[in-house]
Write a structure and sequence with these properties.
Layout lengths: L4 H13 L3 H16 L4 H28 L17 H10 L3 H4 L3 E6 L5 H14 L4 E5 H13 L3 H9 L3 E5 L8 H14 L4 E6 L7 H4 L2 H12 L2 E6 L4 H12 L2
């Protein structure tokens, strides 16, 4: 039996004022279902609140995903887990619960170009966002440009605090493009400020022994590596480029 028009109107207005959109949309249909199934008032209320909670969870996840800047297509569903070395696969399984973010640990992924480093981190980040974690993705080149602009405008500290709101900051392709000393200085400032305060997840095709080419100075290089490695998980993807692997397959299948 449907609610009387005046009751329906009043209830709709109340739910609108209380900012309960999911309840507003489904309370009538749920009431009819509850009557049909002879649910108690408590069961009916539980059903309604569960729908509201689920709706808010979906909206929050969608907002976190928009804010993350993550490539939408780089998920676990599109990642070939079978290509991972045994140790890396074991590490990934342990990382998915997100507890490393609570411990402010860093995640450093090294490997050859095309090995799937970026896809791996993005896929992991999608899983963490689904748990309600706040993640941020950026390439190293884009990050340092944003930090330089912030420094020029005398708001570097504010920009770093903005990034600090995220549980995990993904810095993709560290060292892929050679940066100037000024660019590396703002990046080092970020690493120093974030040390033991939030997780950094990064990819690089350069071993630590070659990082002096990134930071231009031996002492700065050592200090940067020390901050990243102190509390960290290091994943090595010493596997063939996915694109090269596909090219060989296509070549082998050609008539």
């Amino acid at each position: 039996m449907s609610a009387a028009p005046q009751i329906r109107t009043a209830l709709t207005e109340n739910l609108k004022e209380l900012h309960l959109p999911a309840l507003r949309e489904c309370f009538e249909q749920a009431a009819q279902q509850a009557e049909k199934e002879t649910l108690s008032y408590e069961q009916y209320l539980l059903q309604l609140t569960q729908r509201e909670c689920e709706s808010r969870r979906r909206n929050r996840i969608a907002a976190l995903l928009r804010d993350s800047g993550l490539p939408r297509e780089k998920t676990m569903a599109t990642f070939n887990l079978k290509r991972l070395p045994v140790k890396a696969a074991r590490q990934l399984k342990a990382l998915v619960d997100g507890s490393f973010l609570d411990r402010k640990e860093n995640l450093l992924v090294f490997g050859n170009p095309g090995a799937g480093k970026s896809h791996l981190l993005c896929a992991l980040a999608h899983e963490l966002i689904a748990q309600g974690r706040r993640m941020k993705y950026t390439s190293c080149a884009m990050l340092v440009q944003d930090l330089l602009v912030a420094k020029r405008d005398l708001r570097l500290s504010k920009e770093i605090k903005k990034l600090a709101r995220h549980d995990g900051l993904i810095i993709d392709e560290m060292g892929y493009v050679q940066q100037s000393r000024e660019e590396m200085e703002v990046l080092f400032t970020l690493l120093s400020e974030r040390y033991e305060r939030g997780s950094i997840l990064l990819t690089s095709n350069l071993a630590f022994s070659k990082w002096e080419g990134i930071f231009k100075d031996p002492m700065t290089t050592a200090a940067a590596i020390d901050r990243l490695v102190h509390h960290s998980v290091i994943v090595e993807l010493n596997i063939e480029s996915y694109r090269m692997e596909e090219a060989k397959k296509n070549l082998g299948s050609a008539p």
